[in-house]
Amino acid sequence: MANTAYGDISPRTAAHASAEMLKRGLPHLILEKFGQSKPLPTRDSKTQKFRRYSALSLATTPLTEGVTPSSKQLTHVDVTATLDQYGDVVTITDVVIDTHEDPVLMEAVEILGEQAAQTIETVRFNVLKAGTNVVYSNGASRGAVTSEMTLATQRKATRSLKRQNARAITKVVKSTPAYGTEAVKASFIGLIHPDMESVIRGFANFIPAEKYGTTTPYENELGKVDDVRYIYSTIFQPWASTGGTPGAMISTDSASADVYPCLIISQDAYGIIPLKGKTSLTPAVVNPKPSASDPLGQRGHASWKCMQTAVILNDAWMVRIESAVTD
């Protein structure tokens, strides 16, 4: 049997394997939900363009009877994102396949699906946490941070979003391998590391996700404070030992406090190429068989690859709060 682009599996089976990878990986894709999602067709380009039209100035001058006012021109801002390719390979020997009681190749495909999702989530988060709109829990720089985030800090961040006419998130990408969106109750989204859970739960008006009533929580949702819904992930890592003197705060080196980012995002703050559909991620499975590099056919492989990126569309519509956390 000749190899296809998917190794020893047919395109139809590859689509199934891709769906299985995405199914296992989707719970890790928090950032997938809330970005402006724009698929890039295959055989098109490595660059995706996001376009934002600028608001018109207000027409506050009264009209003159019989006189047509001067027309205005629409202006727009283009933000481009260049995709990079990511992927990985797992080698499985013929002995393992022949003697192991578990379906090792299928397990490899599922684990690779988790790895793919976590890889893409990390790549996206590294882009977003580099934004320029930042609020510190204390001090005027990351190196001075020594205190926890407070409700006043959150409200300062959301106030800055509202001043820039940032819109609450009202639609998200569905948590399924198929591409599509669904409407949700309007809110800003706060993205935090699990270490910050006690901080958020300590706010006086915190509402746990399990007490939402008719509102369905997101995966990994902690709860709601004012108009911010908080979701946690271990991928949203702190900057180790970059703050001030730690005191009672968590510190990796005991000399400087770890600084935790909390991203508060609004609608269309950033753009993504969605990890959705059978063409978004390419799996490959190669069974052990003789070849020039493996004459005894002792090694097989399972792998994935995809083209991905993320881009900040408007820094004013996303705020990063930097704070420490009590040990």
TL;DR?
With 327 residues, the protein is α+β, with helices and mostly antiparallel strands. Helix content is 21%, strand content 28%. It folds into two domains: 11-53 and 79-126 and 273-309; 131-271 and 313-323, no CATH class.
Mind sketching the topology for me?
Elements: H1 11-25, H2 30-34, E1 36-37, E2 47-53, E3 76-82, E4 84-93, H3 94-99, H4 104-128, E5 134-136, H5 151-163, E6 169-173, E7 181-192, H6 197-201, E8 207-208, E9 221-225, E10 228-232, E11 260-265, E12 270-272, E13 282-286, E14 299-308, E15 310-312, E16 318-323
Parallel strand pairs: 1-12, 5-16, 7-10
Antiparallel strand pairs: 2-3, 4-14, 6-7, 7-11, 8-9, 9-10, 11-16, 12-15, 13-14
Structural write-up:
This protein has 327 residues and is α+β, with helices and mostly antiparallel strands. It has two domains: 11-53 and 79-126 and 273-309; 131-271 and 313-323, no CATH class. 21% of the residues lie in helices and 28% in strands. It has six helices and 16 strands. It has helices spanning 11-25, 30-34, 94-99, 104-128, 151-163, 197-201; strands at 36-37, 47-53, 76-82, 84-93, 134-136, 169-173, 181-192, 207-208, 221-225, 228-232, 260-265, 270-272, 282-286, 299-308, 310-312, 318-323. The strands form four sheets. Strands 5, 6, 7, 8, 9, 10, 11 and 16 form an eight-stranded mixed β-sheet that branches. It is globular, with a radius of gyration of 24 Å. The model is unreliable at 1-17 (pLDDT under 50).
